[in-house]
Design a protein that fits this description.
Number of strands: 6
Structural class: alpha+beta
Shape: globular
Mean pLDDT: 88
Length: 144
């Protein structure tokens, strides 16, 4: 049995990474932030159209391409995702999960079909930065 399997390597979807953090806002606020122009710009890029509907294919101004596969408002987005210069298409899932404390929501980014440990680490840093950016946006937008 090989015990030296790289972290994040699966048998069926290549490398994967999951990043999540509980943020201080309600699920409706989290969804609004995630799908707003400013929020989308953080995790997806600049889109010419604001369509986040199942089956919608997109190309951002930065050259990221993909297709929304699952759109469940207030709960989940699942899409194919391939930034310009990325050698492969991958799958990104974003979930909004209820947190133990009222008025808080856990946002989860799960990224699979990554082709290497290096790409996995790059995406780990990227999604951590996105979540930090969403938190900063929420502090500007939802002043309590």
């Amino acid at each position: 049995m090989n015990t030296n399997k790289p972290v994040g390597l699966t048998a069926s979807v290549g490398f994967q990474i999951g990043v999540r953090r509980t943020l201080p806002f309600f699920r409706e606020e989290a969804w609004e932030l995630l799908t707003s122009i400013q929020g989308r710009r953080l995790w997806l890029g600049d889109l010419a159209t604001a369509q986040i509907v199942k089956g919608h294919k997109f190309v951002t101004q930065e050259g990221t391409t993909g297709e929304f596969r699952v759109v469940k408002p207030l709960e989940q987005l699942r899409l194919t995702w391939q930034p310009a210069g990325f050698p492969n298409a991958s799958t990104l899932q974003i979930r909004l999960l209820p947190a133990a404390s009222p008025g808080k929501t856990t946002i989860s980014f799960h990224h699979e079909k990554l082709n290497s440990a290096e790409q996995r680490e790059e995406m780990k840093v990227h999604w951590e930065e996105v979540i930090s950016g969403l938190l900063a946006l929420s502090e500007d937008k939802f002043i309590r």
